[in-house]
Amino acid sequence: MTVPGVWYLSLAAILFTIGAVGLLVRRNVLVMFMCVELMLNAVNLTFVTFARKLDDVGGQSVVFFVLVVAAAEVVVGLGIIVNIFRRRPGATADDASLLRG
Amino acid sequence: MEAVIRVPNVEWRQLTPLLILIGGALVVLMAGTFFRGRKIAWLYSAMTVALGLGGLVASAFIWDRVGGPGGAPELAVAGALVIDGFSVFFTVVVCSAVVLGALLADGYLRREHMDAPEFYVLMLLSASGGILMAMANDLIVVFLGLEILSIALYVLAGYNRRRAESQEAAIKYFVLGAFSSAFFLYGVALVYGATGSTNLSWIGAFVRNDTATSGLLLGGIAFLIVGLGFKVAAVPFHMWTPDVYQGSPTPVTGFMAAAAKAAGFAALLRIFLTAFYTQPLLLDWRPIIWAVAVLTLIVGSVLAVVQSDVKRMLAYSSIGHAGYVFVGLQAATDRGLAGSLFYLLAYTFMILGSFAVITVIGRRGDGSHSIDSYKGLARSSPGLAFVFTVFLLAQAGIPLTSGFLAKFYVISAAVETHSYAIAIVAMLAAVIAAFVYLRLIVVMYMGADSEEAVTRAPMPVGTGLALGIALAFTVVVGFLPQVVFDFARDAAFLRLLI
Amino acid sequence: MLEAVWLIPALPLTGFAVLLLAGRRLGDPKAGWLATAMMGGSFIATVVVFVGLLDRSEEHRSYVHTLFSWVPAGRLNVDVGFLVDPLSMAMALFVTGVATLIHLYSIGYMHGDDRYATFFVYLNLFAFSMLMLVLADNFLLTFLGWEGVGACSYFLVSFWFERPAAATAGKKAFIVNRVGDFGFMVAMFLIFATFGSLQYADVLGPGLTVVSSGTAAAIALLLFLGATGKSAQLPLYIWLPDAMEGPTPVSALIHAATMVTAGVFLMVRINPILGVAGDTTLSIIAWVGVLTAFFAATIACAQNDIKKVLAYSTVSQLGYMFLAVGCGAYVAAVFHMITHAFFKALLFLGAGSVIHGMHDEQDMKKMGGLRKWLPITSSTFIVGWLAISGVPPFAGFWSKDDILANAWDKSLPLWIIGLITAGLTAYYMGRQVFLVFFGDERWKDGAEAHGAHGDMKPHESPWTMWVPLVVLAVGATFGGLLNLPFHGWEFLHSWLEPVLGDRLHELTIGGDTELALALTAVALVFVGMGIAWLVYLGHKLRQEAMEPLVLRRAWYVDPLYASVVEKPGRVLADFSAYVFDKRIIDGAVNGVAGLVRLGGGRLRSVQTGYVRNYALVIAAGAVLLLAYMVSRVGI
Amino acid sequence: MDWAIFAIAGAATLAGGLGVVLAANPVHSALMLVMTLFGVAVLFVAQQAHFLAAVQVIVYAGAIVVLFLFVIMLLGVDRSEDLRYEPLKGQRPLAAITAALGVAGVLLLARSDLDAGERSVGGIASGPGSNVSKLAESLFTRYLLAFEVTSVLLVIAVVGAVVLARRTRENEEEGIDPESDAFADESQAVSP
Amino acid sequence: MSDFPILTALVVVPAVGAGVVALVQPARYARWVGFGIAVLVGLLSVALLIDFQSGVGSFQYMSQHVWIKEWGISWKVGVDGISIFLVVMSGILFPLAIIGPKIHHDPRGYTAWMLLLEAGCIGVFLALDLFLFFVCWEIVLVPMYFLIGGWGYDRRIYAALKFFLYTMAGSALMFVGILVLVFLHAQATGVLTFDVVTLAQDQSLAESTARWVFLAFALSFAIKVPIFPVHTWLPDAHTEAPTGGSVILAAVMLKLGTYAFLRFGLYLFPDAVVELAPFFLTLGVIGIIYGAVVATVQKDLKRLVAYSSVAHLGFIVLGTFALTTEALQGGVIQMVNHGLSTGALFFLVGMIYERRHTRQISELGGLQKSAPLFAGVFMVVMLSSVGLPGLNGFVGEFLILLGTFVVHRWWAVVATVGVILAALYLLWSYQRVFHGKPEGENVTFPEMAWSERALMLPLVGLIVFLGVYPKPVLDRIEPSVRDLITHVERHSDYHQPEVAEGEGR
């Protein structure tokens, strides 16, 4: 018996939330960024689940694009991070708080 | 199994603006690889301007076919895009932003000794993302457009590597942008689950047939609002805006404020006024837009009051401007839509003009943005002060500027649908915001004459040109708006194409 | 000839205009002569018109000459037009006459003043305003004159504006008058609302029959409020004594002979309304009049300033006139007004002559024995004294007697108070004459003490000053002839008949009673004079005992007003301006701005600069939207 | 069987996710991320998305996580982060509340009508034929534009990376160090 | 004259003139060029007055050009008896304000802003299209803001900001009000138009809606007038503005509010006005008394005059809401009168400041000794302000009170008290400034220069003329006022009460 979609979706929702919370509580920019990846994975899982439930391959295609986007984001994001934190041990997001108010 | 895939027809002619920008970007990139050097930096700027203008011209041709009262909107590339007046309108907005942005970037890049070609490449590609969002008829295309627009902007925001603020802007924009696009994507997923497709036509058709309230769909809508609200800097998803606007290189800020916001709204308007434009759903999302509009108006103007950095001030005020566009969306009528469109177009010129001035005043190092830097500007460069004053007054919504008509249009739409409360809030927010602009004017014209002689900031040709264009648009449209009013009205024809 | 009526005010106006433009160039004394000539011309014009009116039969002695439409608005139409009738002509005659004399007097009196021409500018303007007041054919134009004389009074009282007292007095005169004008204005509104017009012809004519007595009473009392202001009656008399800060001719002209009688004139003018208004209204007027008369007389008994005495005396005499009006004895009122104009102008000018001769000394206690030094002045002054005291056969006797008889006719208390006042009048005027012209030459002590003025000698005035004195003395002596209480001699009575119509008051008492009353009054007058003689010449009684502080301080009315009106007003105004307006109203405005700033500051602290905070807000926003959507679906 | 796979893979996914968040050392976080990615890949397979599962492993685990590790090494930020300490007051409780409400919200909204949508709009996923060819057909027909547009994304990524990584000649000439400490003026107050 | 678009010219000439002045080289000619343009406008306005048909109540010289087609927005201007004199007054005062006061820096900027202001003000008086009206209404804020902020005194920036924001806050609501009116009208009749005449004729709003919309309008007007309790921007703005600015502010800009009450209040919302009249009458009366009381204790001469404006404007409000022919006529003529006398007062106070560099009453004194002519002129102007019959101020005040009394007895009676108070504060301040012995610098206080005499002559001349012979003015005002009242009567249950004998004598 196949596992009902709702289980997958719940799992995805929880994963998404874990990612979101991770971004909120972690100070290391790289870890924060990994958390974004967690969120994207959760979304991917959701898409795939819906694709199965709807018997529609479109959902899977979308995941494909998400992967590409994730890759591009990672490249640029890491570039930015490298640029900033090359000399900052800890790569702490909280350090970037010159601008405020 | 031998599978034959029938590749759908690609309507190249309808995509010309997009192709011009993307292809042009590649050309610039190539040129940049082969010819470097500061001497020909202007060339890239000129190319970009030419490409932007090319986009405008191409738009004009497309407008003839699809826009206007007699035009026939059509789907393109297997229903992934819609070519209609609306998309053409935003192509015009974004291309205008490209032209102005490129004009003022030239002087900036040379002043700051920064590499030119990649800047323009990124700008052009980013613009193409924006146009894509406006044309998109598929949520995943919206997402891709959004990412194209954003990722290029992340890089542009951090383009000035000598300024810590620029770097900080980039990282903040990037982290939060990625965060919010995850939300957007989750929204797409939920909508997909609820309707079976990411294509707006399908979604719309499904929603119209299916009367049951779908929780999934509503959740999806909520997350879509989060993602796009972030892009257009709507409260409470606005918090990146002041920091990023302040930190980014000034021309980038201008471009970002104009193009990214326009593109975000393009997607928002299209999604909500086509796919989700059904009576039961309207009841669900209109109150959200209402609340977001009110919050955006108030927070934007109130926070602008307490700023002392001009870029930051305008960042907050641009949040406020987003509020007005929301007022038009909230009306959810053709007039409201037209109002939002007109607002965005007028706003594009006002804000780019303003940031052009700020670019000049920023001086070498792009650092002097404190309000004190504007002291006595009316004496040292009266022309610049005057032009800035016009832009500020336009943003304040003083008559005979395009800014006034923009407010007039959206608030008319609100009033027409009997949304009086939001109309009043919008006008009061305008008063509060006016304080901000007046304060700047005060400093320029009436500030205590500082002891040290105010040196005249050098004014590059490109910036001057950008200022001239923006000024001309703001004033001429402010006085004789008929043509642009008609343009917005005809473009504001959003219908679900199936 | 009646068409020439416009000339009467036009001539002084011309004088005003010419002097305004060229007065400085004309200089001293040409400017004065020009003004006097204009005034004289005006007098002649008045006489001409008067003769013209005489030509007409009694029932046609009312002629309106309209110049142009002044304020045509909606249903209101007010013209600049002149009403020539017996009352206005009687007034115009004595106004122009007395004014001419005082203009003449001023030529000498003002000689050497820095702003000689300016003085005549004001004087001519005053004459013009007064004549407008008198000749107007509607309430509004009368009000124009009414306010005009008030303004001129203001200019003239504060003529020597360098002196703070003069400046304050002028202002006070104007403002107190304005209080009265309030009544006048409201009365006009009521008249318009009732009659739809402000023309005398419409209001006082046949239209009057439709008016209820209540409305009429309201109109009458409101106008009377105006009259109490202009004619210095209780409770608004306070400005007149202070107004003595002005040059003496001004006091004579404005504050004795003409302007202050405008209130009486107005009351007489509206006699038809008073008729409808009923007895209560008249009683109020009578009582205010008689009380004022008594009250002012008591104060006059203890004043040392030569002009202040005359000022209070004027207030007192005006009280008599209102008493007459209140008794319905309009003729008596007008009669007393005219005789009073003669003798009071005479007294003032005489006082001015004394002051002039004494080198601007006004304290009677520092005078004495001036009889020898100022023969003409003193003799004419004594004539004035006798006249005002009511010694027969001087003018004052006849007019005062007429009033007292009418008071007796109306009510006994009125008569008694009026009678006592007559005695007081004789007393304080006697006191004045004795202090100034008789007794020791006390001014010598002062001069010696000061040394500087050791060679000061009082001197008689130039002819331009004493000629008017003589003329007025003649008037004060024989003025009674205008209206002797004998059949066939009541000229004024019959002259005013067309104006008064059936309200013309006939005494109900017999000739014997009248005679008895007159004798009583004369007796009392002599008693008053006698006491004055005892105190101030005979030194039989201590002067101080007769001048209690409360009277010297004029019953403390000024301090009373200061503490009841001025001080609370001041506090209120300060509160309004510096607490209410600044703190509360403007504070609210600035408070809103402050609130925005405060809100901005608070919101600003949310914008911490930490990316994770921002992300939290985004997430929270997303959750909020979700929560809303959940609420849409239902849990 | 399906349940078992789901349970194991799901547990791995969640454990990996929690590991990413809770591991003090970023390197450990990256490794935990790999675990999650594998878990998700398994779940893909369980739902007939074979091609995606492969891509997931190749692209994510093979490229992205490796890139992360590179950067961690490059920046030398592999020191542990003190997770007991949170400089931003209230951040954690609020994050927890938000998360709880968020999950609750999504689940409440999703609970009733899971497959409310139209079926097979983008092409049937089940039935004969390989998953790869079906996906390919979908990508080259319905999602052709999106597919093409991803190229722009990649160009941007390349250009962006170049821009961000390059040392500019001008800067060196002028003696301006492009890497000069961006936060020279910023005090370290917020760092633990 | 029939073909010449004189009304449009009255707006366009100064507007273009402002641009010309801004570009004139060299700058020192700018002021004279500006003056010439302003005089030209003045002559045009006088020509208009001469050609104006008296006895006609409807709009004259109406001209209309489509501006934004589908929105029913057009450039529609017209003049009637209510607006004509305000236009002429502006035409006369602006040249004086441009050339009269001393300008210590950047005369070119000053002149250019002045001309722009003139265009805006005249635009408001002539506009018969709500959009055009609003545009002009708002646009005047900008030049005035610059005039106060750029050429004002110590606290000029605070004052300028306050002025701008306060007035803008008011017009914010009116803006919404305009749109509500227009769109409800469109929904009721199917015609989207901003045309004032059409909107007024159709009266398409429901009663309760009309009340709210009117209140939105009224708030904006009330702030501009200003009516108690939204008056506090005025003392600051008046005090800190340069002389020319104060003159225009008092003489012309405050009239925008009172005029708007007539043209866009009574005309568009007759029923709501009738209903709310007691409220506004009360505010007007409070303003009269309150302004006077507060003026009494002011220490700054300019501030005192400013508060006196609050009181005087209270009269105009009273006249407007009394809704009788007399009161309305009085209100209209009082607008002109107040413009002349308060304008002149501000000129004079400005001259005092130029000479003594102070406006503190306590630092002045005895000026009548040093400068008798100056004092004389001041006296005449002041008496006009006090409302002395024979000078212009009286005619308006009297008609207002008279007309109010007919319908609202007690309001009129209380308002009349204001007449006493006016004398109190003005005379008292006159005494402190001009009477007494001059001391210190006041001894050498210079007499009026010829240029100053030339400046004051037309004002004093008009003050006297309008006091003595207001008939030509009243005659031209009356038909329009009559029409307006008839309009109000037709669209509400109000009827002007009869006075005893009806028409005239």
Element order of chain A: H for helix, E for strand? HHH
User: If you average the pLDDT of chain C, what whole number results?
Assistant: 87
Uncertain segments of chain A:
none
Number of strands of chain C: 2
Task: Provide mean pLDDT of chain A, rounded.
Answer: 87
Total helical elements of chain A? 3
Quick one: which chains have the greatest interface? A-D, 83 and 98 residues
Folded structure, characterized:
The complex is a heteropentamer of chains A (101), B (498), C (635), D (192) and E (505). With 101 residues, chain A is mainly alpha-helical. Chain A has helices at 5-25, 29-54, 58-85. Helix content of chain A is 74%, strand content 0%. Chain B is an all-alpha fold. Helix content of chain C is 73%, strand content 3%. In chain C, a hairpin with a 2-residue loop joins strand 1 (63-73) and strand 2 (76-84). In chain C, helix 3 (86-109) packs antiparallel against helix 10 (248-257) and helix 17 (395-410) runs antiparallel to helix 18 (412-437). The radius of gyration of chain C is 31 Å and the shape is globular. The model of chain C has no long low-confidence stretch (mean pLDDT 87). In chain E, strand 1 and strand 2 (73-79) form a beta hairpin. At the A-D interface, helix 1, helix 2 and helix 3 of A face helix 1, helix 2, helix 3, helix 4 and helix 5 of D.
Task: Tell me the layout of helices and strands.
The complex is a heteropentamer of chains A (101), B (498), C (635), D (192) and E (505).
Chain A: H1 5-25, H2 29-54, H3 58-85
Chain B: H1 16-34, H2 41-66, E1 74-76, E2 81-83, H3 85-111, H4 117-135, H5 139-157, H6 164-195, H7 200-209, H8 215-231, H9 240-247, H10 250-275, H11 279-305, H12 310-331, H13 334-362, H14 377-380, H15 382-396, H16 402-416, H17 420-446, H18 461-479, H19 482-491
Antiparallel strand pairs in B: 1-2
Helix pairs in contact in B: 1-2, 1-4, 2-3, 2-4, 3-4, 3-10, 3-13, 3-18, 3-19, 4-5, 4-10, 5-6, 5-10, 6-8, 6-9, 8-10, 9-10, 9-12, 10-12, 10-13, 11-12, 11-17, 12-13, 12-16, 12-17, 13-15, 13-16, 13-18, 13-19, 15-17, 15-18, 16-17, 16-18
Chain D: H1 2-22, H2 26-46, H3 50-75, H4 91-110, H5 131-140, H6 144-165, H7 169-173
Summed up, what is this model?
The complex is a heteropentamer of chains A (101), B (498), C (635), D (192) and E (505). Chain A has 101 residues and is mainly alpha-helical.
List keywords for this structure.
C: 635 residues, E: 505 residues, mainly alpha, 20 helices, disordered C terminus
